[in-house]
Design the sequence.
């Protein structure tokens, strides 16, 4: 899947912007504050129905305007042309996939597999388990059709069990949901384990080589003790759950630990190495998606130069170019572009009287 065209109207610093993209590498060039990250945000918005920025909704609308619109033409894995758009006014957003007015965020996620690699990519390693669960589940969602339905059933049952715990209902009303939780948890766990193994196998050797003799290891933690079945863990923690008022074991507590030999990587590598390794995980996941489903996710890469030396930038540039996915990547100027990406389509942005524009 890839974007063919992108049109922005009254979005961020753009009054009007039209871009034609190549299925390969698209290099966005320009000084700070000319809108490079805003172009990536628009693409992310079209694929996820939400922004990766933490600013308010109204900040997306250009000053003096009452609404914004971002629209794109895409080409899916069957080589069929489709259209997608997002419009916003006030605090409301309208999503349209092929002009369908009842489009949901899930529809966009299913249609446009897209991943962001930005200066905060190291949070995947350094912050809480929810970041790593989100990383895993996004990938599993795209390669295993049964995963999402199982996750929905698990979440519904978990919500009801927690409600029973929170209101101190009798044990029989709590454990009434255990059979569903156990069945779905086992399936979710199997899907995640298979995905972790596939990512480990797909991790680029060139990235492994950067850590010398230390072996990169992935330790998946299912959300309950690894030496115990989930049904036993659920029964064992029932009294504790009743005191706490919520279910304390299960796939909703899973985590993925990234280690060098037997030590957590975040405790012994630099920030640049953290970014290199977490970026490699995203690239490995893209390889898995292509190998399992023939899907090539779009990669948005913002400010790859931040805290990365020239050697690492060249290495990641080589891996991105070899991946075969559509890439949108930002740089301040042409001299910063790694040689492996130098042949990509260049889109240069600059400011004008009518806001940022392509030159």
Sequence:
């Amino acid at each position: 899947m890839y974007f063919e065209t992108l049109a922005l109207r009254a979005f961020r610093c753009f009054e009007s912007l039209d871009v034609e993209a190549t299925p390969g590498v698209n290099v966005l060039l320009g000084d700070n504050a000319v809108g490079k990250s805003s172009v990536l945000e628009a693409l992310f918005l079209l694929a996820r129905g939400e922004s990766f920025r933490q600013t308010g909704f109204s900040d997306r609308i250009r000053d003096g305007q009452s609404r914004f619109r971002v629209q794109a033409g895409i080409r899916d894995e069957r080589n069929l042309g489709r259209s997608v758009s997002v419009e916003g006014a006030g605090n409301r957003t309208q999503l349209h996939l092929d002009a369908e007015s009842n489009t949901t965020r899930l529809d966009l996620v299913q249609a446009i597999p897209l991943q962001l690699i930005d200066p905060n990519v190291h949070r995947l390693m350094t912050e809480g388990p929810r970041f790593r669960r989100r990383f895993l589940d996004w990938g599993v969602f795209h390669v295993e059709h049964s995963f999402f339905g199982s996750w929905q059933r698990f979440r519904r049952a978990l919500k009801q069990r927690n409600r029973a715990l929170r209101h101190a209902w009798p044990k029989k009303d709590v454990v009434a949901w255990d059979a569903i939780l156990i069945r779905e948890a086992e399936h979710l766990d199997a899907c995640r384990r298979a995905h972790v193994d596939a990512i480990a196998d797909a991790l680029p050797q060139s990235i492994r080589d950067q850590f010398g003799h230390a072996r990169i290891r992935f330790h998946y933690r299912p959300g309950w003790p690894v030496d115990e079945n989930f049904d036993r863990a659920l029964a064992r923690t029932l009294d504790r759950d009743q005191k706490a008022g919520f279910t304390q074991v299960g796939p909703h507590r899973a985590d993925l630990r990234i280690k060098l030999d037997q030590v957590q990587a975040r405790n012994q590598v630099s920030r640049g190495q953290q970014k290199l390794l977490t970026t490699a995980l995203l690239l490995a996941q893209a390889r898995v998606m292509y190998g399992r489903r023939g899907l090539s996710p779009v990669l948005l890469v913002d400010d790859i130069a931040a805290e990365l030396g020239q050697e690492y930038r060249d290495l990641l540039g080589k891996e991105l170019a070899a991946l075969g996915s559509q890439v949108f990547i930002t740089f301040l100027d042409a001299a910063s572009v790694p040689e492996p990406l130098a042949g990509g389509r260049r889109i240069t942005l600059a400011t004008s009287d009518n806001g940022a524009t392509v030159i």
About this structure: The chain has a mean pLDDT of 92.
